[in-house]
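wait is this the right file?? whatever heres the structure
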């Protein structure tokens, strides 16, 4: 019995010493993302919830970088942590949310929320059980060229030049239209 305990202790120590910087960063970023996501839910102040959500987006961007998807990491930071979170902050500040003016929830609404949460939990448990066959699979981190900006640029400017140019003209016309409508008002 003592040999088995010593063997388990040795395996745990060996596993910790064999962890590379990528695995350490993965676990640290995962912990930051989970703790920040829980704090989004537990924060009483909506502005603090938005700030915790920005931390979640930074942690997710770190995961994208670990997966060698730099473009997704930068887009995640610019679009979500930048633009959408600023929009959330403006909406929260303009709504002037106070706890005294918040209406009481109906019993049926609480029951519906509990049933929906239970369904979500059942789905999540089912997904975790089905993920058992994923143990032997690993992500291609060092050799892959999937998320690199260079490859995206080559594909965008060689294979998809016409759709790219059409979308740029569409965005330009939308900006000009917004300026014209803004000038009239």
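ok assuming it is, sequence goes like this
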């Amino acid at each position: 019995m003592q040999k088995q305990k010593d063997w388990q202790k040795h395996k745990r120590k060996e596993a910790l010493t064999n962890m590379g910087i990528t695995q350490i960063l993965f676990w640290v970023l995962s912990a930051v993302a989970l703790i920040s996501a829980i704090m989004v839910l537990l924060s009483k102040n909506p502005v603090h919830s938005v700030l915790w959500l920005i931390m979640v987006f930074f942690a997710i961007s770190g995961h994208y970088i670990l997966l060698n998807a730099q473009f997704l990491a930068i887009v995640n930071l610019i679009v979500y942590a930048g633009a959408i979170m600023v929009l959330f902050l403006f909406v929260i500040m303009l709504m002037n949310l106070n706890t005294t003016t918040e209406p009481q929830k109906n019993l049926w609404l609480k029951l519906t929320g509990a049933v929906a949460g239970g369904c979500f939990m059942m789905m999540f448990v089912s997904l975790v059980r089905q993920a058992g066959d994923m143990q032997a699979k690993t992500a291609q981190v060092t050799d892959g060229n999937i998320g690199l900006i260079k490859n995206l640029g080559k594909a965008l400017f060689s294979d998809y030049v016409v759709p790219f140019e059409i979308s740029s003209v569409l965005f330009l016309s939308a900006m000009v239209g917004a300026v014209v409508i803004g000038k009239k008002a």
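The chain has a mean pLDDT of 83. so i think its the right one actually
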